[in-house]
Design goal:
By secondary structure, the protein is mainly alpha-helical. The protein has six helices and three strands, in the order H-E-H-H-H-E-E-H-H. It has two domains: 112 residues, Ribosomal protein L17 (50s Ribosomal Protein L17, Chain: A, Alpha-Beta Complex), CATH 3.90.1030.10; 46 residues. Helix 1 packs across helix 4.
Length: 197
């Protein structure tokens, strides 16, 4: 019977399961994102998050403890050099699971598991700056019809103003052209008169 078996055994013996989780944790730390089944991702999250918490304290003891779990010196150095400084102020929740559908062969539910602070889509400098700038502004909700009507009214007012301004400019141009045309006529009339004299 399965009494008090509180974690997923993943259909493996203990040694195989430990090796699987150590390899997956090393891959996650080195590549920041891996594709796997949902059951393995949930087991990996329980395995790797305590290791990331231990990496916040960069001491020889912490490195040896993490190395005994990961068994990969490159992953340990990456964890303490790259990952730990980025997650230093985060109080847990270092990984994110994104479901991607079902596998063709056996119908297993697949997902990505990734380190939260290394996804550039979700976390970028622009988004952080916008969040900081918008922190003081109250959020408002507007209905669909109101904003469009106001914008249309403002646009029509601007069109009306521009049409009036264009009409005034045409009238001013016509007034300046009209006296000049009259002066030309007088000069034309005056020229024959001067020729006759």
């Amino acid at each position: 019977m399965r009494h008090n078996k509180n974690f997923n055994h993943l259909g493996r013996q203990a040694g195989h399961r430990k090796a699987l989780l150590a390899n997956m944790a090393s891959s996650l730390i080195l590549h920041k994102r891996i594709n796997t089944t949902l059951a393995k991702a949930k087991a990996l999250r329980m395995y790797v998050e305590p290791l990331i918490t231990k990496s916040k304290d960069d001491s020889t003891h912490a490195r040896r403890t993490v190395f005994s779990s990961l068994k990969n010196k490159y992953a340990v150095s990456e964890l303490f050099r790259e990952v730990a400084p980025k997650v230093g102020d985060r109080p847990g929740g270092y990984t994110r699971i994104l479901k991607t559908g079902f596998r063709q062969g056996d119908g297993a539910e697949m997902c990505f598991i990734e380190l939260v602070d290394f996804n550039t889509v979700y976390v970028s400098g622009d988004n952080k700056a916008k969040k900081g700038a918008d922190a003081g502004k109250p959020k408002t909700r507007r209905g669909r019809g109101g904003a469009g009507k106001k914008e249309a009214a403002a646009a029509s007012d601007k069109k009306g103003e521009t049409a009036e301004a264009a009409a005034e400019e045409k009238a001013a141009v016509a007034e300046t052209v009209a006296p000049a045309a009259e002066g030309e006529e007088t000069k034309a009339d005056g020229a024959p008169a001067a020729a006759e004299a």
